[in-house]
Amino acid sequence: MSKIRDKVRTPAILAVVLLPLLAAFTTGPRAEQKGLKPASELALLMREMTAFTDSTRHRLERGDDLLPYPTGFAAMHTATPTDGKLDIDRAAFDAFAVHYLAQVKALYDAPAGDRMSTFNATVQACANCHTVACPGPLVRIKKLYVLLPLEPSK
């Protein structure tokens, strides 16, 4: 009889101890945690840019058409950065922004056969800026490159 009681007691004790711990880790979204600031306009815009780039990568890999041109990305010139400041001066940031926007335009202007390499140049424009300022997203950016087919040997 005690063997049966021991088999029932151990899981019951674990449930009583572990359930409150599990509940503590699953209460509400991360943004509601104490001390976190809301995302800035520039951070939100860059999240949109990342989603667009990831979607575009998948479209190119499947051979699908591009999404409509993202005119809203030009707002990066005026979007408020996190804490109201940039890690680099505004002129340098604007130069990186102009280059990125030119790469996006080049992607849309490129013939279908050149889009994958032009896409990778667009991702590189992101990486160039983030190497100088705000390097945290580089890990995510590096995952956005599309693998180009190998050239046949001659």
Brief account:
With 154 residues, this protein is mainly α.
Tally of DSSP β-strands: 0
Number of helices: 5
Strand count, sense and barrel status of the largest sheet are: none
Distance between the termini: 80 Å
Q: Helix coverage percent of residues? A: 55-70%
Q: C-alpha Rg, in Å? A: 24 Å
Following the backbone from N to C, one meets helices and strands in this order, namely HHHHH
**Category by helix and strand content:** mainly alpha
Shape: globular
Mean pLDDT: 83
Strand content: under 5%
List segments where confidence is low: pLDDT < 50 over at least 5 consecutive residues: 13-28
Question: Which helices and strands, and how do they pair?
Answer:
Blueprint: H1 2-25, H2 41-62, H3 90-109, H4 115-132, H5 138-142
Structure characterization notes:
- This protein is mainly α and 154 residues long.
- It has a domain at 41-142.
- Helices cover 58% and strands 0% of the residues.
- α2 (41-62) packs antiparallel against α4 (115-132) and α3 packs antiparallel against α4.
- The radius of gyration is 24 Å and the shape is globular.
- The N and C termini lie far apart (80 Å).
- Residues 13-28 have low confidence and may be disordered.
Any descriptors?
154 residues, mainly alpha
